Amino acid sequence: MKPKSKIPGDVDEYIAGFPVEIRELLLKIRNTIRSAAPDAEEKISYRMPTFALKGNLVHFAAFKAHIGFFPTPSAIEAFREELKPYATARGTVRFPLDQPVPYNLIGDMVAFRVAENLEKAKAKKKKKPK
Prior knowledge:
This protein has helices at 11-16, 20-36, 73-78, 103-127; strands at 41-45, 48-52, 56-62, 66-70, 87-88, 93-96. By secondary structure, it is of the alpha+beta class.
């Protein structure tokens, strides 16, 4: 399942390109991410909704049979046990459309990524010469 072939200008446009039942899932995922990362910026990157805070946090996208969630390899590793019911790859998890979306798990993974990005930014700042 793909939105309109044109690259969406923003997350609202991306979500609007899907049928109602998929839009509802995408909106809930978006709101879950916003709750866990209220200071993150929304943008389109790699043709999908992306949240960034001191660098990319997570991406998500709708496909024919699943929602793809892209929280980076570190988050996949950190939540390996919780992700056992789902197909995963190096930095990706697939949530099948015929199963409930684990919004709490998504929120936990986003919170993990926020802490990770803030820590990396803090470490970079300390390395800069004065």
